[in-house]
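Subject line: Sequence and fold of a protein, written as structure tokens
Area: Proteins and the way their chains fold up in space.
Start of record: The labelled sequence and token lines come straight after this line.
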Amino acid sequence: MKLIRPDELPLAIEALEAGELVVVPTRRWYMICANARDHDACARIYAGKGRPRSKSLAYILPSLGAADERFIMTPAAIQLASDFWPGDLAMILRWRDSEYAEQHLSVGVPNALVTLDSGLLGQLAGRSRVPIVATTANLSDPSKAFGPAITAAEVERFVAESEISIAYCIDGGISPLVNHLTIVDCTEMQAKITRSGVVHDRAVNAAIAAASWNLSHAKK
């Protein structure tokens, strides 16, 4: 694995498009990334982390517009996207096209875990010619893991322990938040928080309530 600077992002993009894995820093953790349609690359992530195949990887949107193009956006999902994207919130959304979804099995079918990142991860997705999936850089087994990496040095430790092959790691310093994405299930009309994280539950519930209020008044 080679450490590179944030301004060398094109190197990471080229590696992803060639079927390799890269690690990118976010405000929360360092994330392993792959081409979402490259089943072999995604399988290497699962194997390296020891991650159960039942746990989907996160689909990183290239833009806000791509959310509505590829996924069914309920009123709550639209409100949450307006309030918190790009940012530290992810939503579980239904794919619009089942055939297209089948090309992204690592993301989940018929529902996917979806986010729009505000930093380098978002830039990576926005500039890449292939769709991007990501997950934290750490072993999945709690008895072996030291937690998701928050520095490039911790990524190097993870790579040594897992023996996973990573082309590049962008050294972005220390991830300051050390917390997970907040996850909201928006597959039904009534959205619900499934994992608390960086975005506070009160803020999420306020957005969901606003969407419900707007919908009820629009029907009057």
Remarks:
- The chain has one domain: 2-218.
- The chain has a mean pLDDT of 94.
- The chain has eight helices and eleven strands.
